[in-house]
Amino acid sequence: MFLAVMPMCFSACSSEDENGGINAQLIGTWQKMHNDGTLGNDLWVFQSDGTMYMHYTDANGNIIYTDTYRYRIENQYLYTDYLGNDEGEEDDWKDQGAISIKNNILTVVRSSGNEKRYKKIK
Predict the structure, then answer these.
(1) Which of 14, 40, 46, 61 is the most buried (most CB within 10 A)?
(2) Residue 79: burial class (beta carbons within 10 Å; 0-12, 13-18, 19+)
(3) Is residue 116 situated within a structural domain?
(4) Are 47 and 26 in contact (CB under 8 A)?
């Protein structure tokens, strides 16, 4: 009986480790990258408590305004829920796209094929 239960435990643990690993890698500050590799003005800041801030900055790096979200990762997809709406809507989760992280570059690919990249700066 023990041997029959073992594969289920390992597959569940593997899935949890995968999401836990990507969550741990995601924590920090990411700056948008243009196709030519230059950095843009948008910053994504992920915190370990599930909060995400999207800062919009000017050319000097000063924050113009910030949007606040909750985020979650499911099966390598990033979902966000905007917390700044005036209508009091809750649980309006938006699928940002499939994510991957390699060499401190976060890649987000939407179902349309549109790809965004962010470089980890903190």
Answers:
(1) 46
(2) middle
(3) yes
(4) no
